[in-house]
Amino acid sequence: MLKNNLTVLEREITNCRRCPRLVLYREEVARLKRRAYRDWTYWGRPVPAFGDPDARLVIIGLAPAAHGANRTGRMFTGDRSGDFLFAQLYRAGFANQPQSIRAGDGLILNDALISAAVRCAPPDNKPLPEEIRNCLPYLEQELVLIRPRAILALGGIALNTYLDLLKRQGAIASRAAFTFSHGAIFALPGDLPRLFAAYHPSQQNTQTGRLTPDMFARVLRKIQKFLETC
Questions:
Q1: Angle 213-227/80-92 helices, nearest 10 degrees?
Q2: H/E stretch holding 202
Q3: DSSP string, 69-126
């Protein structure tokens, strides 16, 4: 039943056209392509979540990269952010292989699922506030279905998107007490998942040394230690 419900939601997501600016951009990128990928048939649609439907950990990213997930159709697949992320997930045992090249490459996530604040590639990797709000119901439905025990927000936008969802649900009154910092851990009210935060594995962060493999690995170890108690 869970897989069927996720399949229905995935179909709804991939057919979404709520944000005219994003529709125009994702389809233009898919049509024009990047020279290195001229032989590819780009996905060019919203990108659904990817991973284990029974996951206890849900990872929330920002949005598909124009020539990454917008090309391959799978979260964090086909770009350097994904190269970093999946190498670390493999190192921690959440993935069966360190590479993520294309859909159908054999990658399987174990006890983890990757979602995003926005499902379409935005210009300059900067979604507008109303575009994030348009996508919020999809994240909400995924979390209702998955019921994770831990959330890992990659970057401040992902963190604030999840907190805004909790505000909308009435679970928290404000996000003022939840300031983003790499390695932060937040115990949320009631039976809500434990919330973890990390820098987004963007090239801007990884190539400047702001985020290193060991820094990310420490966050994943904290998550694993928490999940051992669940």
A1: 40
A2: none
A3: HHHHSSTT-SSHHHHHHHHHHHHHTSBS-S---STTSS--BSSEEEEES-SSPPGGG-
Return the percent helix, strand and coil in the chain, to nearest 5: 45, 10, 45
Angle between helical axes of 129-146 and 2-14 (0-180°, round to 10): 170
pLDDT tens profile 152-193: 999 999 999 999 999 999 999 999 999 999 999 999 999 999
Determine contact, residues 145/9, Cβ cutoff 8 Å. Answer: yes
Phi and psi at 11, nearest 5°, equal -65, -40
By the 10 Å C-beta count (0-12 exposed, 13-18 middle, 19+ buried), 33 is classed as middle
Measuring CA to CA, which residue among 90, 6, 65 is closest to residue 202? 65
CATH number at residue 91: 3.40.470.10
**Single pTM value for the model:** 0.97
Tell me what the mean pLDDT of segment 118-140 comes to.
98
Q: Residue 62: which domain range?
A: 2-227
- pLDDT digit string, tens, across residues 26-56: 999 999 999 999 999 999 999 999 999 999 9
Task: List the Cα angle 48/61/76 in 5-degree steps.
Answer: 65
Domains identified in the chain, total number? 1
